Amino acid sequence: MAALFRGSRNLLKRWNKNVHSALVSSRSVASKTQVGFVGLGNMGNPMAKNLLKSGYPIIATDVFPESCKELQELGAQILDSPADVADKADRIITMLPSSPNVIDVYTGPNGILKKVKKGSLLIDSSTIDPSVSKEMAVAAEKMGAVFMDAPVSGGVGAASSGKLTFMVGGAEEEFTAAKELLSCMGANVVYCGQVGTGQSAKICNNMLLAIGMIGTAETMNLGIRLGLDPKLLAKILNMSSGRCWSSDTYNPVPGVMEGVPSGNNYQGGFGTTLMAKDLGLAQNTATNTKTPIPLGALAHQIYRMMCARGYAGKDFSSVFQFLREEEGQ
Amino acid sequence: MAALFRGSRNLLKRWNKNVHSALVSSRSVASKTQVGFVGLGNMGNPMAKNLLKSGYPIIATDVFPESCKELQELGAQILDSPADVADKADRIITMLPSSPNVIDVYTGPNGILKKVKKGSLLIDSSTIDPSVSKEMAVAAEKMGAVFMDAPVSGGVGAASSGKLTFMVGGAEEEFTAAKELLSCMGANVVYCGQVGTGQSAKICNNMLLAIGMIGTAETMNLGIRLGLDPKLLAKILNMSSGRCWSSDTYNPVPGVMEGVPSGNNYQGGFGTTLMAKDLGLAQNTATNTKTPIPLGALAHQIYRMMCARGYAGKDFSSVFQFLREEEGQ
Amino acid sequence: MAALFRGSRNLLKRWNKNVHSALVSSRSVASKTQVGFVGLGNMGNPMAKNLLKSGYPIIATDVFPESCKELQELGAQILDSPADVADKADRIITMLPSSPNVIDVYTGPNGILKKVKKGSLLIDSSTIDPSVSKEMAVAAEKMGAVFMDAPVSGGVGAASSGKLTFMVGGAEEEFTAAKELLSCMGANVVYCGQVGTGQSAKICNNMLLAIGMIGTAETMNLGIRLGLDPKLLAKILNMSSGRCWSSDTYNPVPGVMEGVPSGNNYQGGFGTTLMAKDLGLAQNTATNTKTPIPLGALAHQIYRMMCARGYAGKDFSSVFQFLREEEGQ
Amino acid sequence: MAALFRGSRNLLKRWNKNVHSALVSSRSVASKTQVGFVGLGNMGNPMAKNLLKSGYPIIATDVFPESCKELQELGAQILDSPADVADKADRIITMLPSSPNVIDVYTGPNGILKKVKKGSLLIDSSTIDPSVSKEMAVAAEKMGAVFMDAPVSGGVGAASSGKLTFMVGGAEEEFTAAKELLSCMGANVVYCGQVGTGQSAKICNNMLLAIGMIGTAETMNLGIRLGLDPKLLAKILNMSSGRCWSSDTYNPVPGVMEGVPSGNNYQGGFGTTLMAKDLGLAQNTATNTKTPIPLGALAHQIYRMMCARGYAGKDFSSVFQFLREEEGQ
Predict the structure, then answer these.
(1) Average pLDDT, chain C
(2) What is the pLDDT of residue A32?
(3) B110 near B82, Cβ under 8 Å?
(4) 3-state class of D57 per DSSP?
């Protein structure tokens, strides 16, 4: 794992020696003390519930007060702002829609860092630009707090059943503390390296997922038009080198597989808008690092075109439907 | 399997009733009688050897006499032309580089159909345009012979060890007879449907394979530039929805995996030129059927650019190297 | 122009010496003798009328008898088949939808070559694969006739007003004879080189046109979303290096320009289906010559997706509408 | 032009009434008083010289002292920092490589805004993200200064000969004052709308330019492989709908045109790296505004691949060379 630290090794070493032991000693290390939670949307809500179920008292907030009702009835304490949460809890999890929200919740006028306690552990599970994660980590360190990025793989269903996968970036010394909480909400908690690498891993996975999904949709559509039975084609691909998650686990062709959105008119699942957002993040990081991603860039554009043509709310496997001939053509 | 016949069902039914029983009775059904083999290149040579090993006397030919020497020493009879082979054997396998070769070997002045016996079983394992397979089947039927397409998945290694996968198109009644021979050369023999569907399945698989490989190369490269350890990133992808054959079985990043071309300077394996050829076939069938294949088309162009830039002879996973920054940049 | 002949120079030289003088002497060289015309569709009809206006008696045919009525009323003689036309006229122009039609009209059972007179001049103005043009030229030569390809640039309007551009491929010695007829139907008649180069020039132009049109649509849409006034943006592009025919002559944004399809709900003009067809030809020639055309390939796929999504009948500049956000999104 | 102000109309109106008259009265309106210049690189140096030639005393600075020598010898006063320049001059032009440099020069610890005089006119000719221009305008307004973006079209040659085109965004009331200075350095000064629209126009133009250039390179390469003479093909395109700036003014094929980089081994001109940078800006603005740009995105990736493969320093028309078959293939 040493290779992961690279350029920031010395920085981290220094930080470790001078600051770390002091920080940890000041944090409430006794398990089952209260945990803060900011962002109670479709994902945050079931995640916070699972923390509650595991016995952690929850102090939460959300910009939409109605989002907090259910959790309040289950016993959570609801406060007015992230700053107020940070004033009471020294372990906080945030789950927000996008980079600007994260910036606001951490560094805004009522943000966490306004009242954060020294030694606090701040875990952001939003999917955002890794460079923003790094900025937040720097800002948190200035206040004596520890910031980690821990975006998730898996949707609302996995959030409800506590089966999310967390990809965690940040100081390795803090991983155990983070894992204690994240394990209540997920089945896998993977350490990825320094701050931002959790986001990077998430973004990389979703870029390859999008490419595989569009590729599977094109391939299945082409095969069907060439006279192949869709189920048979899927079977052949899945025993051959064309095999991928989109072909063997989440096939986009209606009727090939049970229990996936393609069998339910592409409802539920992972929306085209969200995939377009993640591909936008992949594109940003690729542009910033001058990395060529020809298929990733085109996948991004295809999901953008789909959003413009009425597919925004459908599962991302609806690209199969988008590519097919419209009825009556 | 009935669904596969669709539009050609009536044609096949008629054909079955009037012609089929007559044909089969006239073919040498006793196993282990001689088998013809046309095309003794890198793939055809080990395939013919495996037939020999299984006890079938081989009558072979190739445009390059030197290609025949090894097989001759092993006991095969070498003749001058495909027509001569067809004159002696009523089961013939062909393994040729591209569509024009197939057209020539079957319908040329010294082609198989000049001397083919009524009821002969002709199996073409070349990877070609499915519309050419259909043309050959029509031409063979006119001479009272049966043509099947049976392209392979797996390279020279799989050909040598008899572990190829055959994707077979043609009259379902003939599949058992074809499988008897193909099983000597492969581990999987899959019936795909009417004539041409073997090619279609092969082309579909390789298109998705190319998309998955380039996607994996882009993703691994992006992740590495974002600070992720390549082995860790591969591990994360392979337990997540980014998983595909190129990430978990044939990873293009040197050092991530043992025993794949990326660990051997991209030597061996499946050449970029061959992948470009298969993607050209996919593009042709997509254009002919007016099927949009945006990622497939771009994958084709990327392999074309690679061929133009010196990667023609390397394994197709070398796209990882192509996308990386050149040293000194 | 010598460089254009290249590999076929010797062939042409031989042909010129042995055959050419004989052929020409046998053809009706007197101007204003009858001209054959096969294919009286949207383009062929006004083209044949312009020949009539120029004083040439017309002998015509079409698979749809009703297509011939108007021309018959104007004095043209209508016959039953291309063979019949070839029996009467030794200069014939063909204007057909696609390669299979051309193959049938020339080499089919009632095709031109069944009754063609020695020395006849056969000019095909269809847009087809240049390799088919070459095949037709070889077949014509066997019958002692001369085949030239002369596809057009410009739509129905230019056909009506006699303002088409003809791109002509074939023996340079025949160009003057071809130009005599083509000048009655077009404003520009350009000699491009050996047989097939007329098609090649046409295909090349339309590929670049498609790229420029989609590029202009993307650029105008992006600029508008960034707050630029569309007319001002068009003006800036047109005085700068972004200038192209699609930005300065056929702008795809409604309201920027008068008298173009974008101002008329994308009706009229050059249909998306036809552009997709031409891009399919470009893709075929690129695949056959192993030429990378990344943007051309993607342009092809975008027009294919548009055809699948209801834009088949609209002018090809409707890509601007396809890329824009749907209302209510 | 009113339509351009849209959402910010009210903001600008308010600003105009309360602040504007006060600002202008305090600025040195007498022409030929000193002008500040920050950034004396390949472009900034000749631009500043042209201001000097027009009679404006120049006060300049650059992070590399050696860049200032030539201008100092011509009579310019060289200071240590942008802040120092702002302390002396109330009209300042900046010409910097990228967004971070602009942010630093304006808002950094020694930046212009540290000592800017009320009513100063700040004109940024760098090519950067329009959202950064907007940020700088807001920051400048807080200090009572006016910020305009005025990126240029045209390279070092146009900068030397004073033939640049400036695309200007900002308060329309200030355009006359800006034009007075910019006219000394350019042949065209175009008002585009509110702050950031100069950048937007520049980015839009360069995106369409890149698409047109790659499209021209693909088309010329395809035509040549199909047997067309390159000069003839260029001539045909330029009289047809394929015409664009890259085909008729800056043709990428060596030998087609005089006086362009393709005739000089792709030296000079507009480097591939710079084009890749501008396409990255186009991609960022498209991603932020959720605008699909399929060809623009692919053009970006192609220039990225070229940078990775050794073309970083060549003119952007070298894409023709990149797409061609390497010798010996």
Answers:
(1) 91
(2) 81
(3) yes
(4) coil
Contact list in C for residue B307 (CB cut-off 8 A) is 290
C-alpha–C-alpha distance, residues A198 and B192, integer Å: 43
Cα–Cα nearest to A4, from A187, A198, A183: A198
Distance CA C274, CA C279 (A): 9
What subunits touch chain C, counting only 3 or more CB pairs under 8 A? A, B, D
Share of chain C above pLDDT 70, in %: 90
On chain A, the residues whose CB falls within 8 A of the CB of C298 are: 298
A247 neighbors A295 (Cβ within 8 angstroms): no
pLDDT, residue C74, reads 96
Candidate from B280, B298, B305 with C-beta closest to C287: B280
Task: Note the Cα D256 to chain centre separation in Å.
Answer: 28
Q: Is D202 labeled as catalytic in the residue annotation?
A: yes
Instruction: Give the mean pLDDT of D265-269.
Output: 92
Helix ranges restricted to H, D197-318: 197-225, 230-238, 245-248, 272-288, 294-308
CA nearest to D125, candidates D91, D157, D156, D102: D102
Rounded-to-10 torsion of CA A29, A32, A35, A41: 140
- Mutation pick from D304, D305, D309, D311 vs chain B, by most beta carbons of B within 10 Å, is D309
**Residue B154 — left, alpha, or beta (φ > 0 → left; ψ -120 to 50 → alpha)?**
left
Structure tokens at C90: 């030794």
- Listing DSSP states for D81-135 in one string gives SHHHHHHH-SEEEE--SSHHHHHHHHHSTTSHHHHPPTT-EEEE-S---HHHHHH
Helix (H) or strand (E) holding C152: strand C152-153
Query: What is the C-alpha to C-alpha distance for residues C237 and C217, in angstroms, rounded to an integer?
Result: 12
Query: Under 8 Å CB-to-CB from B245, ≥6 apart: which residues?
Result: A240, A241, A242, A243, A244, B209, B212
Distance CA B171, CA B183 (A): 18
Taking the model in full, what pTM does it have? 0.90
Other C-beta atoms closer than 10 Å to the C-beta of C326 total: 13
Banded model confidence at residue A31, pLDDT cuts 50, 70, 90: low
Least confident of C21-30, C59-68, D276-285, D318-327: C21-30
**CA dist A310 → A272, A275, B43, C178 (Å):** 10, 15, 48, 51
* Minimal C-alpha gap between C40 and chain D (Å): 25
D196 and D133 in contact (C-beta within 8 Å)? yes
Cα R_g (chain A), whole angstroms: 21
At D217, the amino acid letter reads: A
Given a cut of 70, is residue C32 above it in pLDDT? yes
Q: Which of D297, D305, D308 sits opposite A301 (nearest CB)?
A: D297
The tokens describing B277, both together, are: 């050829």
SS3 B198: helix
Residues with Cβ within 8 Å of residue B21, at least 6 apart in sequence:
none
D291 contact residues in A (CB cutoff 8 A) = 304
Reading the block at residue C259, the tokens are 């008298």
Kindly state the tokens that stand for A92: 């906080």
Residue C24 has pLDDT above 90, yes or no: no
Helix pair angle (B197-225, A197-225), 10° resolution: 170
- When CB atoms are compared, the residue of A294, A302, A305 closest to D301 is A294
Compute the average pLDDT of residues B316-320: 98
Give the chain A residue nearest C308 (alpha carbons). Answer: A325
C128: buried, middle or exposed (CB in 10 Å: 19+, 13-18, 0-12)?
buried
Q: What percent of chain A clears pLDDT 90, i.e. is strictly above it? A: 86
pLDDT band (50, 70, 90) for residue B1: very low
The one-character DSSP state at C214 is H
CB contact under 8 A, A295 and B215: yes
Among A26-30, A134-138, B118-122, which stretch is predicted with the lowest mean pLDDT?
A26-30
CA distance A262 to A266: 5
Say if B127 is an interface residue toward chain A (CB within 8 Å). no
